[in-house]
Amino acid sequence: MGYLVRGALIGLAEIVPGVSGGTIALVVGVYETIIRSAGHLVRAAVGGVRGLVRRGEERAEVRALAAQNARKVRWSALLPIGIGMLTAVILGASAIEPLLEEHPVEARALFAGLILASLVVPARMVGGAWRPREVVLGLAAAAAAFFLTAIPPAANQDPSMLVVGVAAAFAVCALVLPGVSGSFLLLTVGLYEPTLAAVNDRDLGYLGVFVLGAVVGLGAFVSGLQWLLEHHHRVTLVVMTGLMAGSLRALWPWQDEDRGLLAPADDVLPVVGLVLLGTAVVAGLLLAEARARRRHPVDAQHVADTLDAD
């Protein structure tokens, strides 16, 4: 399977809430390549900026280090993966946006099933049985996410560019940590549909801010994730699991325009069927991921080690 096709599979995962692009990258065997290259790319970019403000021998030294990191990026893999992802996102967005507009209940049901099964990933990566205080912490994180996703969306307002950039910075974590869905994060803050519309309408202003936020987020999150996993491994994943669980409120199929929860309607049986379908899809992906892990073991601590490796 070529890097272009692998990138397309990751891109398709990125636009479906509940399916982690990081998980797909792991399954198709390019996860470590992406993480290593991202780490070197971030270091090269930071070094390049630092080189602009330094002088003399110090500037030359900083630039040399940045160039060294740039050479370590696997461009032959990263570029086709990126092209494949971009192509898949553009094509997939045109198919998903009409689905959300015409069948919102069914779409939320399918996405809820995807998320339910995905909860297994961060919960499993905690390592061993949860301690009582971790259960309490996870429940607190879930409660916080539940109440945050209950906040009604702003009426008749386009999201500000600041909000778009910040959301993109957090959503990009889906490429870094398997089990986390960037699209789901956008969905819970009400930016999923506007982002799909921006892709389909070729809104370059919105997309430019989104990409900039994602780049900044990748640079910050790579370092932040490394520190959290090294110093607070279990707590980080416990909180992540709780946040994902609580955010499921955003995917309750029957809602009003202000995100108020409604009782199930007459279509309860097909809706439940879609939830089960979404669960089955992710369960299949997790089985494939398990086989990939047996061949090439990668866990959360290994991510931190990888990011720290030269």
From TrEMBL:
The chain crosses the membrane at residues 77-96, 108-126, 135-155, 161-192, 204-229, 268-288. Signal peptide: none annotated. Keywords: Membrane, Transmembrane, Transmembrane helix. It holds the Pfam family VCA0040-like. InterPro entries: VCA0040-like. It comes from the Bacteria. This is DUF368 domain-containing protein. It comes from Actinotalea soli. The lineage of its organism: Bacteria, Bacillati, Actinomycetota, Actinomycetes, Micrococcales.
